[in-house]
Specification:
This protein has two helices and two strands. With about 120 residues, the protein is mainly alpha-helical. It folds into two domains: about 50 residues; about 35 residues, no CATH class. It has a two-stranded antiparallel ribbon with strand order 1-2. The protein is rod-shaped. The mean pLDDT is about 85.
Length: about 120
């Protein structure tokens, strides 16, 4: 009979504990650094987007409105006010700087009581 050799799997020793710990700790450290870096980038970009899309447009809107209102106050205008009795009263809007000059020249008028 021919002698046949059967291939038996070779037994491998367990890996060294020191190498396993080093590889595990290195993997944990790299994973932790990647997670923290991802969080930092995410929150930086999120704050930047919030500033650009929420904070700045409202600020620009309010500045635009303020400039528009100051422009309206810087010129003379006529407007009509409806009194409680239904009559229309015509009034003139004057610039604030001119109103200040008039008040300093003439002084304040005595208040009138309406009832």
């Amino acid at each position: 009979m021919a002698q046949t050799e059967t291939a038996q799997p070779q037994m491998m020793d367990d890996p060294e504990a020191g190498q396993t710990w080093v590889v595990s700790l290195a993997g944990i450290i790299i994973l932790s650094v990647l997670v923290i870096a991802t969080c930092v980038f995410f929150f930086r970009f999120e704050n930047k987007e919030v500033d650009e899309k929420v904070v700045l447009p409202a600020n620009a809107w309010s500045q635009g409105m303020r400039l528009e209102q100051e422009g309206e106050l810087a010129k003379y205008q006529k407007y009509t006010v409806t009194a409680p009795d239904g009559s229309a009263q015509s009034r003139i809007r004057i610039p604030i700087s001119r109103a200040i000059e008039i008040v300093t020249e003439r002084g304040l008028a005595a208040p009138t009581q309406q009832r």
